[in-house]
Design brief:
The protein is α+β, with helices and mostly antiparallel strands and 311 residues long. The chain contains seven helices and 19 strands.
Length: 311
Amino acid sequence: MFSYTAYNLRIHSEFPFPELSKGEVAQQPDVVISLREISKIEIETADGANRLVAFLELENFKAGRFLVESGRKIVVEPDSGIDEDLLRPCILGPIFAVLLRQRSHLVLHASSIAINNEAVAFLGNSGWGKSTLANAFYNQGYSLLTDDVMAIQVEGDRPMTFPSFPQVKLLPDAAASLGYDFETLTLIHAGIAKRNNRLDEGFSQTVLPIKRIYVLENVAATHNEIQSLSPQNALLELVRHSRATDLLTTPEFVSSHLRQCASLVKNVSICRLKRKPSLDVLPELVKLIEEDIAEKQDPRLLGEVGDLYLV
């Protein structure tokens, strides 16, 4: 049995995850990952909520069938002949997003870094530059918090985010722009264009309050610019870029998700980041965001945002 930590959880797994930080085997796990056939009774009693059974694919590869139960258990039934190298991204991506949702967290498609003991997040779809921007901040001495899957505890005085594991995924041009030799990065699988870049040094294991969320724009701009979003537009972006919403579709999960998004809009500053279409501007983007963080107070965006959708 292998032992790891991620998202403030103790994880025991029957097969290794080199991406994760190692934990203590003797500790009682919060999550157990097992490799076996999913039983007929488990399939028949699945409710699409706290007991979810799903087939998943990654990069056009059939990965297999997965059971995720009560935010505590993951059962992996691999497709015939599938490599573990393809199973792990499925588990650490969509499967963990489901598990974190079952644990009542809001889960965003975002990467985040730590600035002055607060989390700053970059929100957007795959290929929009979240990981690249987070790695650019890391190269300037900031700690990585999450890549691609960002779990948020909305309840409480301030929304808090949980550190995941010290790694980002980079394409060849992004790696080169950040000063890495792409061939030395960890191969995920021969059929996947990105590679893993391990960022252990200074990785934060601390749960941090969220300072600001930047929504990346997938349209080339003539200049770099940060624009404040209205509560309505901010809510739309959070809903659009949430994870596991296509898998957990029961009424209770849908209503909970919308309430959490509305609460986050009320309590965290959410902006749009427009960027010139060049990786050469990464240092400019880092400086622009640093200045934005330093200049602005963290406003509480007021208004009855929840009424927009929860009717």
